[in-house]
Every structure is written in structure tokens, then in C-alpha cells.
Design brief:
about 40% helix, binds zinc ion, about 400 residues, 5-stranded parallel β-sheet, elongated, 6-stranded mixed β-sheet, alpha/beta
């Protein structure tokens, strides 16, 4: 024992000396241990099991704690502006460290510049950690396939990372079946979404959702559910809902501008939505959904002259409307009753003008597959300045899917 601790002490002194000489920073044993545990003892790039050495302590350093950004200025993947101060700061930051086998470590550090950019390593590192979480979670409360729907018609940044949805699922006690699948909808040419666009969207969503769900179900049987989050145009999100269908168990998530996919307030009480029936008359009914914003009645009149307006909405519409999953359930339950009322008042399709969060658009689509045989004609804002423009008949999409 005495000799080995002496050896370590000598090693430490040597390391200190070399740090002073080369500017190379040392990672503490405490941090190294955290990196080992977090990686579950496997190389984060090739998956090699390094645990045997760890347990026997025969050759502990077979597994190497590697830096994404280097331990010294001028090291691999360090940019020109990367300084000794950066190195000192990041060398004990576990988010900058990964566990590698010697071969992979050599590969990434000796490969030509740019072959292993730091971002690429960070992605693979995150992927490895998410896999471990999935594998380690033993709660079988719920188990789900997961799909992210991303539209491309917003100028603002509109992405949801797979790891974000995974974290949101874990928080709800749902074990993700595998890395969530991102479906990136087609580009919108000249701002026009035509029938062809919606046909393509329907096909893409159908393939992705059916495939993910059937794989999860083949592993987990009827216990499988499907988790979905989206950032896309409202009609496309409604289509995603029709593909999901109302009978399938689902967990719908929504992006809040502040808290992203985390629910802002788990304890917030379910809202009571305010609904007004349309005036008596003969014109078509325009259903105005004011949840994330209030749609000016004139905007509806411009797009649908002579329509009789019915409204359903939050007492105070806001982009931060959804506080937790109870809000989605309340929307679904209360809207379903209201739609049944409206359907008795007209035989014509109901025109829909919606300012609603993504999760509600998905729920609206799912509701249509339940007992609503009625036609729903969806309008959405388009062009500059934006006006409401007819987009599609949701029940036509449904019929096409059934065919
Ligand atoms: Zn490896």
C-alpha cells in the first residue's frame, strides 16, 4: 500500500510539473469519476465496455477521460481564440468531458483538423448520455414512441431537439422508446401552401407516426403511447392530430417561449374556456379559437364575409397559455362539447380560424377522428400583410387517409 500511494504522490508531482511546463490542465479525480459513472463505463464513441478495468483496478486508465474542448490552448479542437483560461475553466467541467477508449481517443485527437469538430463530438456525447438514461429507466408506467413535427415557414428559429422531447417525456414518467424522430415538413414556395403541400405533409406524417408507433408497440404491446411535439403551421399540426387519431394513447407537448418543452406550472388549475354560440341565421359558421391570441373579428369577416361567428377561447389569451398537460385535456374536453353543439346548428362545413398553441392544433385534429363526421374548413394566416386564407378541408384529409 505504502509503495503505491508513494507512486501516486510522485505521479501527482510529475503531473503538476508538466502542467506548469506545457500549460496543460488536469482533471480532478472527482470529476473523472463523475464522467465514468455518467457514461456507464462505456466508450462514448464505439461503445466498448471499459468497466472491467474500472472494477478490477488493474488498468483503470484503459478508459480515458477526454476533452471536447482541449485541456491546453492550442490543443485539438481549440480555436485560435481558445486560451489557457478557457482550458482551465473547461477541464473540470463534466459537460466538456467524455469517456473514451484509447483507440477512439487517439482517433479524434490525431485526426486531421476539422475531421472531428467539437460540435460533432458534443452531439455524439449527448446522444450517448440520452441512450443511457433510456436504458437505465426502469419505470414502466408508460413507454412511448416520439415524433417532432417541424415546419419551415417561420423566419424565427423553429427547432425542437430530440433530447428536449426526451427530457420532457422523462419528466412525465414516459420512457422514450428510442431517439425521437424529427419530421421536417417541405419548404413553402412563395409563401403558398396548396393542396400538394398538404398532401405531402399528410404522407410524411403518416409514415413517420405509423412507423414509430408500430415499432414501439411491437416491443411494448398495447402499453405503448405516442409522444408528439411540433412547431409548424397550424393546418399541418392539425393533420398530425388526425394521423394520431383520438383513440390512440398520446402525450402532446408544446413549446413555451420561456420554458421550452417543460411545463411552466405543474400546479396551475385547469382553465375554463369561454364559448359563445353564433347568432341565428343562414350563413356558414366561423369558429374562432382565441387561445394564444385574440383574432380580430374583422380579419374573420374579410376572409369569410357573411359567416356567423362563434368563439371559443381562454379568458385571457396568451402565448404562455398552456401551463401543464391538464390545460390540453381541458381544451379537448370542453371543445368537444362545443363542437357537438355547433354541428347541430349547420349542415355546412364549419370554418375554423385558430390562434392556438401547437399542442392544441394537434388535439383539434385528433378530435376530428372521434365522432365528428362534420366538415371543418381550416383557414390560416398567409402573405404580407398576413390575412386569413383558406387552407384545406380537414375531413377530406381524413377520408383520403381512410381510403
Ligand atoms: Zn471507443
Amino acid at each position: 500500500m505504502a509503495t503505491s500511494s508513494k507512486k501516486i504522490a510522485t505521479k501527482k508531482a510529475a503531473a503538476k510539473k508538466s502542467a506548469a511546463k506545457t500549460g496543460r490542465q488536469n482533471t480532478s479525480n472527482k470529476t473523472k469519476l463523475e464522467v465514468w459513472i455518467r457514461a456507464a463505463g462505456h466508450c462514448e464513441l464505439c461503445g466498448k465496455d471499459l468497466m472491467l478495468e474500472f472494477v478490477s483496478l488493474k488498468n483503470l486508465y484503459e478508459g480515458e477521460v477526454a476533452h471536447i474542448f482541449p485541456a491546453a490552448a492550442g490543443g485539438p479542437r481549440g480555436s485560435k481564440t481558445y486560451t489557457a483560461i478557457d482550458a482551465a475553466r473547461l477541464t473540470n467541467d463534466p459537460s466538456n468531458l467524455m469517456l473514451l477508449c484509447p483507440n477512439c481517443h487517439k482517433d479524434i485527437d490525431k485526426s486531421p483538423d476539422g475531421t472531428y469538430p467539437a460540435e460533432d463530438l458534443t452531439d455524439r456525447h449527448q446522444g450517448h448520455l440520452e441512450h443511457i438514461k433510456v436504458a437505465a429507466m426502469t419505470s414502466h408506467n408508460d413507454f412511448g414512441a416520439a415524433v417532432i413535427v417541424l415546419g419551415r415557414h417561420f423566419s424565427t428559429q423553429n427547432s425542437i431537439e430530440p433530447s428536449e422531447l426526451q427530457r420532457a417525456m422523462f419528466a412525465e414518467g414516459i420512457r422514450p422508446h428510442r431517439i425521437p424522430r424529427q419530421v421536417v415538413l417541405p419548404e413553402i414556395i412563395d409563401g403558398k401552401r396548396d393542396a400538394h403541400y398538404y398532401q405531402t405533409v399528410t404522407g410524411m406524417l403518416r409514415r413517420a407516426i405509423e412507423q414509430e408507433f408500430s415499432v414501439a408497440r411491437s416491443d411494448m404491446g398495447d402499453g405503448a403511447l405516442i409522444a408528439i411535439a411540433g412547431l409548424a403551421d397550424i393546418p399541418s399540426l392539425m393533420i398530425a392530430g388526425t394521423v394520431l387519431g383520438d383513440r390512440r394513447r398520446r402525450a402532446v407537448f408544446s413549446v413555451d417561449r420561456g420554458t421550452r418543452l417543460r411545463w411552466p406550472d405543474l400546479k396551475a388549475a385547469r382553465p375554463h374556456y369561454v364559448a359563445t354560440l353564433p347568432p341565428e341565421g343562414d350563413g356558414p359558421i366561423a369558429l374562432v379559437l382565441n387561445i394564444s391570441a385574440t383574432i380580430p373579428p374583422d380579419d374573420v369577416r374579410d376572409a369569410a364575409p357573411g359567416a356567423r361567428m362563434a368563439t371559443f377561447g381562454a379568458p385571457t389569451p396568451s402565448f404562455h397559455h398552456i401551463q401543464n398537460s391538464g390545460f390540453i385535456a381541458a381544451f379537448r374536453e370542453q371543445l368537444q362539447v362545443f363542437l357537438s353543439d355547433l354541428e347541430t346548428m349547420t349542415k355546412e362545413p364549419i370554418l375554423v380560424f385558430a390562434a392556438i398553441p401547437a399542442a392544441f392544433a394537434i388535439e383539434f385534429g385528433a378530435l376530428q377522428t372521434m365522432n365528428h363526421q362534420h366538415g371543418y374548413r381550416i383557414y390560416d394566416r398567409a402573405g404580407k400583410p398576413s390575412t386569413f386564407v383558406y387552407q384545406l378541408d380537414l375531413n377530406d384529409e381524413l377520408k383520403e387517409m381512410a381510403a
